[in-house]
Every structure is written in structure tokens, then in C-alpha cells.
Amino acid sequence: MRRAGCIEMMYPELEDKLVVTIMGACAQELYNLGHRDNFFYLQHAMGLASSIGLGLATHLPRERVIVLDGDGSVLMNLGTFATLARYRPKNLVHVVFDNGSLLSTGGFTSHTTSGITDIAAIARGAGIEHAVGVSDVTAFGEAFVDALDRDDLSVIVAKVEPVGPDHYGMDLQLPENAFRFKRWIAERRRATGAAS
Predict the structure, then answer these.
(1) pLDDT for 110
(2) Which helix (H) or strand (E) segment is 86 a member of?
């Protein structure tokens, strides 16, 4: 299973959700499908997509927040699962693409390559009830739909091939991305009449 295919499957469902991606391949593959102002590509901050997602989910409880993460990033910030479990934002879906590789920083193998380290089991051990591991497209699609239908924190760990995009490069710098993302949230809150 390829991460790009999973992201493409999710893409139609992301139009009205806050989406935070980790740096590198994941961000580029989402960007390649067509940028939307509700997408925030967390460039140059490996390990922190889940933390940003948690902040958004707790501050904006009426919004659905989707975090697209990687195994290398999660392994850099394992404490995030305990924090997510502690606050349990019902509007957060954390998708971890586990390719067993630090693909965006040189392609070195990660701790999940050997099959000993199980990220979904770590999430469950931290106290996240709805944490599943999937390894085929059908199971991924079902897990994502279930997570969107569920009014609770969900973690999906998708085992994917260590393959990235054929090019890197976004015509969007981080400060501009952050400004447009913030403005999208503000305009949406005005439109829905949410309190500031």
C-alpha cells in the first residue's frame, strides 16, 4: 500500500476539515493533489504535527482535525500519545503512515522496520482506545470512514511502502501557509457564528 494512494482516497473528505501534515513526503503528496487553505504543512518541525493537531482540536472543538503523520515523526515525540489520551479530543483523527523509513531525511530505517515496534500498540498502551493498525487499502478506507463517523479520538497506523513523491517543492512558504490557514479558520468561524 502506498501513502500517496491513501492520501488521494482521503482527499475528498478533507475539504471542510483542518488538516495538519508532517514535513516531507506526506506534505508534498497532499499538496500535489491540490492545495486548500485549510491544509497546514508543518515544514521543518519533525515530530510536532500531533502537538499542533491537539492544540487545534482542543481550541476548536466544533472542527474536525486530521493529522497526517509519519512513523519517524511519531517516534521522535512518543509522549504525544499519552498527552492525546489525557485530553482525548473527540474531534481529532491522527493518521500515522508507517513506512519503516525516515524517507524525508535520507531514507534511513526507523525502529518499526524490524516489526518489533508497533505504533498502534504504543498508542493503545498510552490509553487511546480507538487505535488500529492497517496494511491494505480496503482496511485503511474502512478505518478512516469509521474514525470520521466516531465522536472520539482515533489513531490509524497505516503500514505503507517506503516510497515518496518524484519531486519536492511547494510554491507556498511556511509564513504564507500559516497566514492563509489562520484566515481560513477565522472566516469559517465568522460564517458559522462561532465565538471568537
Answers:
(1) 62
(2) helix 79-87
Integer Cα distance of 61 and 179 in angstroms: 21
What does DSSP assign to residue 46? Answer: T
What's the predicted TM-score (pTM) here? 0.92
CA 55 to mean position of chain CA atoms = 13
**C-beta separation of 60 from 18 below 8 A:** yes
* DSSP reduced 3-state for 20: strand
Listed in order, strand segments (DSSP E) in the chain are: 18-21, 39-41, 65-70, 92-98, 101-102, 108-109, 131-134, 154-159
Q: Exposure string (b/e) for 56-87, b if CB count within 10 Å is 16 or more?
A: bbeebeebbbbbbbbbbbbbbbeebbeebbee
Domain architecture of the chain: domains with CATH = 3-192 (3.40.50.970)
